[in-house]
Design a protein that fits this description.
92% of the residues lie in helices and 0% in strands. The protein is an all-alpha fold. The chain folds into two domains: 173 residues, Helix Hairpins; 63 residues. The longest helix is centred in the middle third of the chain and has 82 residues.
Length: 243
């Protein structure tokens, strides 16, 4: 997987405004769960890329160190061959001196080749070191932001559970509210009040009937009194005529 694409995805995730995403999401918890999965996938890709890049870098560094060591070694061999050539020439062995000078030239050629390879590898090594540092920084940033997302998700889940619990408590309170006419207790109380009202009505009706009966008795008494007085009046009038 190309390192550049990983860089792009890392940068995109690091720039993500989590609060804005939460505000715009229909289900923030589902959105955060998906975002966490994206982070986990990209962290795994980044770790793989970092490991591969570091491995390649270490190979380049080993080759570079070997080239530097080889250049030093060939330099020492060239010097030794040159010194031997000078020694032989000083003793009059021109043929031997020429032979060792030729060996010194071969060693110097090898030294130049090794130095050239080391020089060519150095910019690549420096570039790879920069890439590794950027990947490490991006990976560290991703892991830190992932922890923030986990904390945010846990906070939202906890708040959702608290809100759900509060809603259940409120529903329970509402269901047993005796002042709520729609509740069982409210309906029972209303039924009792109707029964009480019925008894009051019956009592009032009974009282009215009793009063009427007493009033009837009063009327009968008055009629008896009238009849008695009429009888007395008649008897009194008859006595007056007779006397």
């Amino acid at each position: 997987m190309a390192k550049q694409s990983i860089f792009g995805r890392i940068a995109q995730l690091l720039k993500a405004n989590v609060n804005a995403l939460i505000d715009s999401a229909e289900d923030p918890q589902l959105m955060l769960d998906q975002l966490l999965r994206d982070y986990d996938n990209n962290i795994a890709d980044a770790e793989s890329a970092v490991a591969t890049t570091i491995g390649n870098l270490r190979l380049l560094e080993q080759d570079y160190e070997e080239d530097i060591a080889a250049a030093d070694d060939w330099g020492r061999k060239a010097l030794a061959a040159s010194q031997k050539a000078d020694q032989l020439r000083g003793s009059g062995d021109t043929a031997g001196a020429d032979k060792f000078d030729a060996l010194a030239k071969v060693a110097l050629g090898k030294q130049i080749t090794a130095e050239g390879e080391a020089k060519t590898a150095k910019p690549t090594i420096d570039s790879q070191n920069e890439i590794v540092e950027k990947l490490k920084d991006g990976l560290t940033g991703l892991k830190a932001k992932r922890e923030q997302l986990v904390a945010k998700r846990n906070e939202l889940v906890a708040r959702a559970k608290v809100a759900e619990a509060q809603s259940q408590v409120l529903d329970a309170i509402k269901s047993v509210d005796i002042m709520d006419p729609s509740s069982d207790l409210g309906r029972f109380e209303e039924k009792i009040r109707r029964e009480e009202a019925k008894v009051l009505g019956q009592q009032e009706l009974a009282a009215s009937s009793l009063d009427a009966q007493f009033e009837s008795l009063d009327d009968v008494g008055e009629e008896i009194e009238i009849e008695a007085r009429l009888s007395a009046l008649k008897q009194g009038g008859q006595a007056a005529i007779t006397s």
